[in-house]
């Protein structure tokens, strides 16, 4: 499959949802406001990566519908308020464990998974800048732990939606107009 731009991937996801899972699309919130984006920037202490800002200008999270829209199987898309709250919680948890730090202040959680795991986009000025990492307190996880950027992750999720192929040990299903992921 040819590489699609990030905005093309978001448009393709909207198109697929409109055709096959219209209730999931209907339940996605409107774009984040300038004030909501500013709150995320303030929490991070740096500018948002272009793709992260574009993602939030597409929809501000998954909303409250069940099952939630997932950026990757099992990882519900967080809105700006939940991103800030989770980031603050992770920073506070690390402060309570000075010998074992699992969180970088310039990681932005963009999706929430099971048992406290999340997908976080690295905003730090380092060789991992822009990577998407699975952050978890469960060290026994297997499977992919990073993607080179948010575009690579969403492109892979879109392909799994469109073609029904497995991704992260899950396969998409649509029931009554709602997208969900089940174990493959």
Which properties best describe this structure?
8 strands; 6-stranded antiparallel beta sheet; two-stranded antiparallel sheet; SMI1/KNR4-like; 184 residues; 39% helix; alpha+beta; single chain; globular
Quick structural gist:
The protein has 184 residues and is of the alpha+beta class. It has helices at residues 6-20, 22-27, 34-44, 50-58, 80-95, 150-163, and strands spanning 70-72, 75-77, 107-112, 118-122, 132-135, 146-147, 170-175, 178-183.
What does this structure look like?
The chain is an alpha+beta fold. The protein has one domain (6-183): SMI1/KNR4-like (3-Layer(aba) Sandwich). The chain has six helices and eight strands. The strands form two sheets. The chain has a six-stranded antiparallel beta sheet, sandwiched between helices. Strands 7-8 form a two-stranded antiparallel ribbon. The radius of gyration is 16 Å and the shape is globular. The relative contact order is 0.16.
CATH names the topology as: SMI1/KNR4-like
The amount of beta strand, in percent, is 15-25%
Radius of gyration: 16 Å
CATH architecture: 3-Layer(aba) Sandwich
Strand order of the largest sheet: 1-2-3-4-5-6
Which shape, going by the Cα principal axes?
A: globular
Compute the separation of the termini in Å.
Answer: 22 Å
Helix content: 25-40%
Give the class from helix and strand content and strand pairing.
Answer: alpha+beta
CATH class: Alpha Beta
- Largest sheet properties: 6 strands, antiparallel
Query: What's the domain count?
Result: 1
SSE succession: HHHHEEHEEEEHEE
Instruction: Determine the mean pLDDT.
Output: 90
* Secondary structure tally: strands: 8
Low-confidence stretches: 139-144
Helix segment tally = 6
- CATH homologous superfamily annotation: SMI1/KNR4-like
């Amino acid at each position: 499959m040819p590489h699609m731009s990030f905005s093309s991937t978001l448009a393709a996801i909207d198109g697929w949802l409109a055709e096959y899972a219209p209730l999931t699309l209907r339940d996605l919130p409107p774009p984040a406001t300038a004030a909501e984006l500013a709150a995320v920037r303030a929490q991070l202490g740096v500018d948002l990566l272009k793709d992260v800002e574009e993602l939030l200008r597409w929809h501000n999270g998954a909303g409250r519908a069940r099952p939630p829209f997932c950026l990757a199987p099992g990882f519900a898309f967080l809105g700006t308020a939940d991103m800030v709250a989770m980031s603050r919680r992770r920073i506070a948890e690390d402060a309570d464990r000075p010998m074992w730090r699992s969180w970088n202040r310039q990681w932005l959680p963009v999706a929430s998974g099971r048992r406290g795991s999340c997908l976080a986009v690295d905003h730090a000025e380092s060789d991992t800048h822009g990577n998407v990492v699975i952050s978890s307190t469960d060290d026994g996880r297997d499977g992919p732990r990073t993607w080179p950027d948010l575009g690579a992750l969403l492109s892979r999720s879109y392909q799994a939606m469109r073609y029904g192929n497995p991704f992260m040990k899950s396969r998409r299903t649509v029931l009554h107009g709602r997208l969900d992921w089940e174990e493959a």
